[in-house]
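To the wet lab folks,

You asked to see what we're planning to order before we commit. Fair enough. Below is the target structure as tokens, and below that is the sequence we designed to fit it. If anything looks off to you, flag it before the synthesis order goes out.
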């Protein structure tokens, strides 16, 4: 029987850490086997700032995923984000030794390897090298060069770069949690795999993933990734503003945002008020929903304007680069009421909320098709492409051996070992002789004990 290709994605976010285990079903859709979620401690704006707390949060999420799925996780594909991420456009070429041979995968790999050797700023590392369009002997706009003839193979690349120390810290947290790192993926790329259709990528689309600590952007046109950016603001700054503006604690601010928050102040009437319990016997606080919406609106406008600046930097206003499919919003922040309308108003672009349900199996739990899980679903899809066996059924894992603590065995040299072996042989010989007369011995011992009992009886009688 062929082994199942079990894939695992780990989304290390600022608000939550999600470990997701899944596999492809017979229809090519993603079947989710188990999910573990834990509060993310030790991550700020997508960057690890406390190793110990992050390890504990990862272990908690991994443990929950294993318990809910019945699989033991071996390795994971991890999403990477944070304000240290930047992307550059780069063009490179190779001259082929034999133009009479068709171009193969090895030629493209050679070109990608060449780009991977690019000199970066000190402390930076290349995360992704994504080929865009190829040029063969001057003939441009070739999307698939394999199978063609040519001497000079040239391509434009989208190169994603990040801080080496941040990437290593993520790797360290994972290995210290007792699992291996099988791949790193830029989070907006993972989210785009989960929520965008191929038609949207062809037409031109901007994916905005509003997370807790960062807002990630990925722009596609003609089916090719054109621009990526990570903006260091997300849903947490909205909660912080509510906390400051309403003088309440963080937990209450987060609940207010989720239950009553709206990005459009005009929707709330002046007399709509919510009462919040006071701290330690203090009077309850009354908060106007209109004021709450004004606070949220101001911050969301700031985030969307920053994203729109990046979309303009890509060249959206150029007719050839126009994003016909508009904007897709995903991530936890996309669940904010009226955010779709506000984004359309600011950018003038068609907008929809992206749910990762297109690639999920029909019988999947509804919770997993929430925008909240877009990155995690994308990472599992990425892990499936790696074709690694990332998890095994718990019953297939060898049970742990019970080890009793004992003194370490003394080191014995060759001559001592020979002497011990001789002694063992002699003892075995003596024991075997003893065993021959065991029957007689049993009879004697029984008789002796019987005689002793009689003696005792007589002694006592005197």
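Sequence we intend to order:
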């Amino acid at each position: 029987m062929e082994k199942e290709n079990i894939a695992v994605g780990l989304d290390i976010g600022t608000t939550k850490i999600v470990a997701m285990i899944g596999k492809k079903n017979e229809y090519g859709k993603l079947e989710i086997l188990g999910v573990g979620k834990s509060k993310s401690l030790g991550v700020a704006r997508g960057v690890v700032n406390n190793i110990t707390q992050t390890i504990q949060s990862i272990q908690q999420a991994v443990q929950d995923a294993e318990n809910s799925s019945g699989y033991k996780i071996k390795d994971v594909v991890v999403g990477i984000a944070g304000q240290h991420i930047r992307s550059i456009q780069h063009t490179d070429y190779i001259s082929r030794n034999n133009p009479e041979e068709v171009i193969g995968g090895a030629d493209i790999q050679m070109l990608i390897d060449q780009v991977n050797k690019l000199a970066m700023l000190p402390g930076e590392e290349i995360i992704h090298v994504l080929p865009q369009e190829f040029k063969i002997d001057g003939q441009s706009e070739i999307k698939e060069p394999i199978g063609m003839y040519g001497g000079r193979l040239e391509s434009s690349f989208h190169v994603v770069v990040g801080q080496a120390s941040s990437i290593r810290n993520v790797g360290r947290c994972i290995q210290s949690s007792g699992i291996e790192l099988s791949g790193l993926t830029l989070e907006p790329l993972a989210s785009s795999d989960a929520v965008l259709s191929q038609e949207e990528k062809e037409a031109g689309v901007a994916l905005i993933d509003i997370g807790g600590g960062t807002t990630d952007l990925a722009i596609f046109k003609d089916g090719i990734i054109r621009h990526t950016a990570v903006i260091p603001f997300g849903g947490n700054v909205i909660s912080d503003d509510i906390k400051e503006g309403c003088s309440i604690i963080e937990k209450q601010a987060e609940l207010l945002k989720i239950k009553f928050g709206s990005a459009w102040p005009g929707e709330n009437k002046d007399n709509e008020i919510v009462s919040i319990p006071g701290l330690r016997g203090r009077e309850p606080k009354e908060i106007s929903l209109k004021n709450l919406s004004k606070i949220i609106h101001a911050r969301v406008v700031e985030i969307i304007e920053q994203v729109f600046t990046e979309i303009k930097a890509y060249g959206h206003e150029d007719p050839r680069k126009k994003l016909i499919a508009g904007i897709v919003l995903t991530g936890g922040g996309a669940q904010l009421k009226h955010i779709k309308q506000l984004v359309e108003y600011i950018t003038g672009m068609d907008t929809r909320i992206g749910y990762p349900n297109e690639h999920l199996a029909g019988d999947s739990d509804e919770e997993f098709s929430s925008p909240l899980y877009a990155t995690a679903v994308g990472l599992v899809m990425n892990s499936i492409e790696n074709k690694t066996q990332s998890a095994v059924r718990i019953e297939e894992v060898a049970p742990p051996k019970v080890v009793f603590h004992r003194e370490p065995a003394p080191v014995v040299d060759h001559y001592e070992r020979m002497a011990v072996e001789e002694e063992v042989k002699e003892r075995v010989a003596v024991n075997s002789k003893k065993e021959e007369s065991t029957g007689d011995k049993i009879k004697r011992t029984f008789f002796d004990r019987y005689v002793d009992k009689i003696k005792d009886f007589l002694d006592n009688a005197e």
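Structural context that might help your review: Residues 435-444 have pLDDT under 50 and may be disordered. Residues 289-314 form the longest helix (26 residues).

Thanks,
Computational group
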